[in-house]
């Protein structure tokens, strides 16, 4: 997969991952995340970067976790959204191989909000 160079490429990739009509509620949740992402991107400035960037990481973690969970047909849309909202702050930590008890290196990657 090539890296995203625009927000539209990013959105299209994840929109295509939602799939079937049964997941309509997840598409609505995804749209809300995209709206939040676009808002946060507009808010970035040298003065706001340190407050906004952790929120952008949080939106990205929510979206990626949503895409991972959508493959599990045993979960309802509501269960998926509940799991995403409770676990997104730890997504990057686990992706980097840390368990929840391990102290992470000081990195912006772990400042998710």
Structure description:
The chain has helices at residues 7-18, 24-43, 49-69, 77-87, 91-95. With 113 residues, the chain is mostly helical. The two termini are 27 Å apart.
Q: Could you give a short account of the major beta sheet?
A: none
Regarding quaternary structure, what we see is single chain
The global form is globular
- Series of secondary-structure elements, N-terminal to C-terminal: HHHHH
Low-confidence stretches: none
Helix/strand-derived category reads mainly alpha
Strand content: under 5%
Query: Whole-number average pLDDT?
Result: 87
The N- to C-terminal Cα distance equals 27 Å
Query: How many strand elements?
Result: 0
Radius of gyration: 15 Å
Number of helices: 5
Can you tell me the number of structural domains?
1
Helix content: 55-70%
């Amino acid at each position: 997969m090539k890296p995203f160079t625009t927000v539209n490429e990013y959105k299209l990739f994840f929109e295509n991952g939602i799939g079937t009509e049964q997941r309509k509620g997840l598409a609505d949740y995804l749209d809300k995340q995209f709206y939040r992402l676009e808002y946060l991107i507009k808010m970035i400035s040298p003065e706001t970067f340190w407050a906004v960037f952790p929120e952008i990481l949080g939106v990205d973690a929510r979206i990626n976790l949503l895409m991972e969970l959508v493959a599990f047909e045993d979960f309802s849309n509501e269960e998926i959204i509940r799991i995403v909202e409770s676990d997104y702050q730890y997504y990057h930590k686990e992706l980097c191989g840390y368990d929840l008890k391990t102290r992470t290196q000081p990195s912006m990657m772990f400042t998710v909000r």
